[in-house]
């Protein structure tokens, strides 16, 4: 499903950009002119998305040849050429922006994700993403997180139970919501994990008593977070969430949680500055 989705995302992006045709290139560039384009990273960061870059170029023009000089997840410095595409200059110019948009965004997400993970590398905690992604680009965003060395949370609403405050309100209580999810899981004969969001220590105790796979500690202060970790005491996995930033993520990880979800790594990541420099074949 992800493979088909990725191909469709790329085709949609190409159609969005090219439309009825690249009129500037069609007018100004000889269709037989050969060139190569260097993908130049212009700032320090983590590169990610080489396979998406390759698919984008292959889908648009299979005759273009792409060579990589780095791997997904590599830390590179400014002024580094990480890939070269060779072939018709017109094709390179037309596919350039779509290819760069994917590559820059994925590298930007990977760079921010790695910044967070590096802060907590001395702990067992793992940075995970959220569903706060660009609509239609979730596959791309989550691949980038994974390539950074961090982990994906659920992909969508269909692959894991996540009981949040509004579900609890609608069901009547944490215990009732969990019970209903367990009944639904049994009825549908699947084994999706159950996670419940808690906002205070009494809710943590209630969730522990119901037996879940993951308890989310939402916007807990550090003192209560440590108490919650002690209460849970390995009975399930623990996710910390809410207002996580580079200044506090180290302290959060040191409380003993297993996962720290960070929406910013996808919804606020700045694209890595990468350009394509065209050079004619002489």
Describe the structure.
By secondary structure, this protein is an alpha/beta fold. It has two domains: 2-113 and 270-280, Aldehyde Oxidoreductase, domain 3 (Alpha-Beta Complex); 118-267, Alpha-Beta Barrel (TIM Barrel), CATH 3.20.20. Helices cover 45% and strands 20% of the residues. It has helices spanning 2-18, 23-28, 50-60, 89-119, 138-147, 165-171, 174-188, 201-210, 222-232, 249-253, 264-267, and strands at residues 34-41, 45-46, 65-68, 75-76, 80-88, 126-128, 161-163, 194-198, 214-218, 237-241, 259-261, 274-280. A six-stranded parallel sheet has the order 6-11-10-9-8-7. A four-stranded antiparallel sheet has the order 3-5-1-12, covered by helices on one side. A two-stranded antiparallel ribbon has the order 2-4. The longest helix has 31 residues, at 89-119. The radius of gyration is 23 Å and the shape is elongated. The relative contact order is 0.16. The model has no long low-confidence stretch (mean pLDDT 97).
How are the SSEs ordered, and which strands pair?
Blueprint: H1 2-18, H2 23-28, E1 34-41, E2 45-46, H3 50-60, E3 65-68, E4 75-76, E5 80-88, H4 89-119, E6 126-128, H5 138-147, E7 161-163, H6 165-171, H7 174-188, E8 194-198, H8 201-210, E9 214-218, H9 222-232, E10 237-241, H10 249-253, E11 259-261, H11 264-267, E12 274-280
Parallel strand pairs: 6-11, 7-8, 8-9, 9-10, 10-11
Antiparallel strand pairs: 1-5, 1-12, 2-4, 3-5
Helix pairs in contact: 1-3, 1-4, 3-4, 4-5, 6-7, 7-8, 8-9
């Amino acid at each position: 499903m992800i493979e088909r989705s990725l191909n469709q995302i790329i085709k949609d992006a190409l159609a969005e950009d090219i439309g009825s045709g690249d009129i500037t290139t069609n007018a100004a560039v000889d269709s037989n002119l050969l060139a190569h384009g260097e993908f130049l990273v212009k700032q320090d960061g983590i590169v990610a998305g080489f396979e998406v870059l390759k698919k984008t170029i292959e889908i648009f023009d299979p005759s273009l040849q792409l060579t990589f000089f780095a791997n997904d997840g590599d830390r590179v410095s400014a002024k580094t050429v990480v890939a070269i595409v060779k072939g018709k200059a017109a094709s390179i110019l037309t596919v350039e922006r779509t290819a760069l948009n994917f590559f820059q965004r994925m590298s930007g997400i990977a760079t921010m994700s790695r910044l967070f993970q590096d802060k907590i590398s001395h702990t067992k905690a793992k940075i995970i993403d959220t569903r706060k992604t660009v609509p239609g680009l979730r596959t791309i965003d989550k691949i980038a997180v994974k390539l950074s060395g961090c982990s994906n949370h659920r992909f969508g609403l269909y692959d894991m139970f996540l009981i949040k405050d509004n579900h609890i309100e609608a069901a009547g209580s944490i215990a009732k919501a969990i019970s209903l999810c367990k009944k639904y899981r049994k009825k549908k004969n699947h084994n999706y994990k159950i996670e419940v969001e808690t906002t205070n220590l009494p809710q943590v105790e209630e969730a522990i008593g119901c037996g879940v796979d993951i308890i989310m500690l939402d916007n807990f202060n550090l003192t209560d977070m440590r108490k919650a970790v002690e209460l849970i005491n390995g009975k399930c996995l623990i996710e910390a969430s809410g207002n996580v930033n580079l200044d506090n993520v180290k302290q959060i990880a040191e409380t003993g949680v297993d996962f720290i979800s960070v929406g910013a790594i996808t919804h606020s990541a700045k694209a890595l500055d990468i350009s394509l420099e065209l050079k004619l074949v002489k």
